[in-house]
Amino acid sequence: MNRIGKKRPPLAVAPGPARGVLNQRLxxxxxxxxxxxxxxxxxxxxxxxxxxxxxxxSAVVERQETLAHPNAHLVFxxxxxxxxGPHRQRFSKTLAGHGWVFGVKFRAAAFxxxxxxxxxxxxxxxxxxxxxxxxxxxxxxxxxWPGMAVMCKQVASLLMANLPxxxxxxxxxxxxxxxxxxxxRLTQVQELAQVAGVSPxxxxxxxxxxxGVSPKWIIARYRLHxxxxxxxxxxxxxxxxxxxxxxxxxxxxFIRDFQRKVGQPPAAYVRSQVAPDGASSGxx
Length: 284
Known about the structure:
Strand content: 15-25%
Shape: flat
Distance between the termini: 40 Å
Radius of gyration: 19 Å
Largest sheet: 6 strands, antiparallel
Number of helices: 9
Helix content: 25-40%
């Protein structure tokens, strides 16, 4: 593969605020979302561990939707463990009764070493985790929730026993993805290619192999995450100023893109996230 950059990125020590969660009105009284940083030995490969637990009143059904990040996840639910590749569409999960899900969010370019194949082959699909990690199904033979601390410890041990060889491309590509996530002024693939020191076509090939989605998709997804964050916090209005801030040619393009990805126009989405008393319920 082509070589890019020379600098290893700093490793995050704790997960920041969640982005891309669409339904901000789920009650924290009934739904718990917890994230935890991995052990230092796993930080080159893992962004964080996470869990969602819910206990909803009888006959109450909720739906949570997310606009996923460009990451692979190892996900445990009940007695099943699956690997999910980067998901480009809106991801929905119906919540009813009592339940839990535990997951590992890998760094954007890191799971390719475990997988051993181009990540584009895992895009928008999932596979049994046993195809990658031998013995993973024994972790949850009973299907009972063992607790966050126990799961983190057991899964960390599983990953440590299966670490891939060090690939110098991985931290460099992770740094590029992080730059796209945090630099709101970055709106073009050419800009990211210049940072990497390669052509846009070379960058696309590297992203297809290591990440599974294109740099263009990643930039667009993170600008949409930024739009959601600003609208959810009331820090921006769904207007032409926000569209231009995010790099759109005009407000009409922004509205069409937002509606295609989120399912409703920006103004309607803002109204849907305001509680009857006029106050947002805040993030899960």
